[in-house]
Design goal:
This is Thiamine diphosphokinase. Keywords: ATP-binding, Kinase, Nucleotide-binding, Transferase. It is an enzyme of class 2 (transferase). The strands form two sheets. A nine-stranded mixed beta sheet has the order 4-3-2-1-5-6-7-13-9, with helices on both faces. A four-stranded antiparallel beta sheet has the order 8-12-10-11, with no helix packed on it. Helix content is 23%, strand content 31%. The longest helix is centred in the middle third of the chain and has 16 residues. By secondary structure, the chain is α/β, with parallel strands linked by helices. The chain is built from five helices and 13 strands.
């Protein structure tokens, strides 16, 4: 699926904003209740998978009949979250891009685990992101261009113990060959002065969070 974009819709916080992310040629993956969201909004998931412990029997029947492919697993005897199962399926397809919708919500443990999933895609050279109504999150390990778009702020947080050689171009608060360690807030709430900025780094994994209030 080189050149393709896979959208994973999972069971966190969703809304009409998510529909605006989906494009005509996207491959749609429904994870647990995320599959129901897609179907209720007129989409036919390419694959729906998970333990489906958050849907009713009637809703599960609808998901099964309305998906091109369907994989159900035991909710007790499984080692992965539904979202990680869907993400691993998407990685195996080797797309150009993976976007997670509904990956953030009231369960902070699940939200943080989903953010950590982005690392797996980054290390395989696949552009991966989490998008919700107010945020877009990526993990980078090499020089990356960032578009300002609809976001007012951009924050940088280390995902590895240390990130070195951070240099920012086009930002209100520049850094030059800086290092960030876990627990530091130096990279919080920067602003892009230009429509596009450049983030350089030498070593480590950097979490880049674009946000708006």
């Amino acid at each position: 699926m080189n050149g393709k974009r896979i959208i994973i819709v999972t069971g966190g916080t969703l809304g009409d904003w998510a529909l605006g992310v989906i494009q005509e040629n996207d491959v749609l993956v429904g994870s647990d209740r995320g599959a129901l969201y897609l179907i209720q909004h007129g989409y036919k998931p390419h694959i729906s998978l998970g333990d489906f412990d958050s849907v009713t029997t009637e809703e599960l029947s609808l998901i099964r009949s309305s998906s091109v492919s369907f994989i159900e697993c035991d909710p007790i005897h499984k080692d992965l979250t539904d979202t990680e199962m869907a993400f691993n399926w998407a990685l195996a397809e080797q797309p150009e891009q993976i976007i997670l919708l509904g990956a953030l919500g009231t369960r902070f443990d699940h939200s943080l685990a989903n953010v950590h999933l982005l690392r797996k895609g980054t290390e395989l050279g696949i552009a991966c992101s989490i998008i919700d109504a107010n945020n877009q999150i990526i993990v980078m390990n090499q020089t990356t261009r960032i578009e300002r778009g609809r976001y007012s702020h951009i924050s940088l947080l280390p995902l590895s113990l240390e990130v070195t050689g951070i240099t920012l171009h086009g930002f209100a608060y520049p850094l030059h060959q800086a290092a960030l360690e876990i627990g530091q807030s130096l990279g919080i709430s920067n602003i892009l002065n230009e429509p596009e900025g450049l983030i350089e780094l030498q070593t480590g994994l950097l979490l880049v969070i674009q946000s708006k209030d």
